[in-house]
Specification:
It contains 15 helices and 17 strands. The chain has a 6-stranded parallel β-sheet with strand order 5-6-4-1-7-8, with helices on both faces. A 6-stranded parallel β-sheet has the order 11-10-9-15-16-17, sandwiched between helices. Strands 13-12-14 form a 3-stranded antiparallel β-sheet. Helix 9 (227-233) crosses helix 10 and helix 11 (307-318) packs parallel to helix 12 (339-348). Strand 9 (194-198), helix 8 (207-213) and strand 10 form a beta-alpha-beta unit. The chain is an alpha/beta fold and 403 residues long. The protein has helices at 36-40, 42-50, 75-85, 98-105, 129-140, 159-163, 174-187, 207-213, 227-233, 248-261, 307-318, 339-348, 360-368, 383-390, 396-399, and strands at 16-20, 27-28, 31-32, 54-58, 89-92, 112-115, 145-148, 170-172, 194-198, 219-222, 264-266, 270-274, 283-287, 301-305, 322-326, 354-357, 378-379.
């Protein structure tokens, strides 16, 4: 079967269209610090508005664990969405109930309402299928058709992602269609040379991706906190750097498999180590095999790839035709340890083929470091969903749409 798209829903003028977006944006003191996910939802919403649909936006923010916690309210998101759409967006302070029904019933053609955080209702993420189904049934009463456009949640079996689309005529929005088109290019006959850059804190988060992509890539570059498990797997001391000892044997297996397959597995030749995990910590650059030989000794804490490694990674990235990057190279939130991440991001903007930022922390990093979305071939809105797709897993939120 093929993914059902918006065209399959027919004319939508006058219809109540429930749209599951991913509006899980970072907030600080009630202010949105990165509106990338909101902007990513605009194309589908504009299409529906222009068709005269009555648009009911549902989404989650954070993990309020079934409680109505003010810091997780979608009200600021609705306000930002109104600004970006250039039109008034209503807000319903509940997910289901009389107030929400009245807000939806009050919509005219082309108008939009955002419902409060789905996760204020514990049934949204319940492990009990019957609870999810009942919540989905109540949501379904608010619409005539359903559009799934929150790629960041399609790997979850949740009421609004999995049960709801089974209750109404449903299809994927343009964001999901575009994400799948890009991810398909990363897994099926990618243009070579094909480079994957993996970072982030834990190697255990990336094991499935490494396993699935090793037969497909030409270069695999390892940075971030996960690099220290790779170094330790080679018998190198890593001081107080992040280390997953239970993954050492598996990492050794990947190193051996890369060699057998002729994959260029590139590990850092130098790292930035610090005396503590803080923005103003004493720090220095050391060779990867000399972490505990540094002035910091066994207390050395690795927080970024070194400048020589950053230059090497950048050269490989910008001379590749296809690049997928997921996970920062260091603690980019601290300026002293952001150079590696910034170097990889800059190189990715220079890729002549397809350069993909794999969502999550990577997307947050490029924006925090001053890059614009337009500088990259694609910025995914789904970190975890992207990784699970690249692991070859079936995603429940897509399967229910015919994928």
């Amino acid at each position: 079967m093929s993914l059902r798209t918006l065209d399959s829903l027919g004319p939508l003028s006058g219809k109540r269209v429930i749209v599951r977006c991913d509006l899980n944006v970072p907030l600080k003191d009630g202010e949105i610090t990165d509106d990338g996910r909101i902007r990513a939802s605009l194309e589908t919403l504009d299409l529906l508005i222009n068709q005269g649909a009555r648009v009911v936006v549902i989404a989650h923010l954070g993990r309020p664990d079934g409680e109505a916690k003010a810091e997780y309210s979608l009200r600021p998101v609705a306000q930002r969405l109104s600004e970006l759409l250039g039109k008034s967006v209503a807000f319903a302070a509940s997910t289901v109930g009389d107030e929400t029904t009245a807000a939806v019933d009050g919509l005219a053609d082309g108008q939009v309402v955002v419902l409060e955080n789905l996760r204020y209702n514990a049934a949204e993420t319940s492990k009990d299928e019957s609870e999810r189904q009942e919540f989905a049934r109540r949501l379904a009463e608010l619409g005539d058709v359903f559009v799934s456009d929150g790629f960041g949640v399609v790997h979850r079996k949740q009421a609004s992602v999995y049960e709801l689309p089974a209750l109404l005529p449903s299809a994927a929005g343009t964001l999901i269609s575009r994400e799948l088109e890009v991810l398909d290019k990363l897994t099926e006959n990618p243009v070579r040379p094909y480079t994957v850059v993996l970072g982030g804190s834990k190697v255990s988060d990336k094991l499935g991706v490494i396993e699935h992509l090793l037969p497909r890539v030409d270069n695999l570059l390892i940075g971030g906190g996960m690099l220290f498990t790779f170094l330790a797997a080679q018998g190198l001391p890593v001081g107080k750097s992040l280390l997953e000892k239970d993954q050492l044997d598996r990492v050794r297996g990947y190193v051996d498999e890369a060699a057998r397959r002729g994959v260029n597995l590139v590990l850092p030749v130098d790292v930035v180590v610090a005396s503590s995990f803080s923005a103003d910590a004493e720090h220095t650059v050391v060779a990867s095999d000399g972490i505990e030989s540094s002035p910091l000794g066994s207390d050395a804490l690795g927080l970024d790839i070194g400048p020589e490694t950053a230059a090497r990674f950048a050269e490989i990235v910008q001379t590749s035709s296809t690049v997928f990057w997921n996970g920062p190279m260091g603690v980019f939130e601290f300026p002293a340890f952001a150079h590696g991440t910034k170097s990889v991001a800059d190189a990715l903007t220079r890729v002549s083929g397809l350069g993909v930022v794999g969502g999550g922390d990577s997307a947050a990093a490029v924006r925090a470091l001053g890059f614009s979305d337009e500088q990259f071939g694609h910025i995914s809105t789904g970190g975890g969903a992207s990784l699970e797709f690249l692991e070859g897993k079936r995603l429940p939120g897509l399967e229910v749409l015919g994928w």
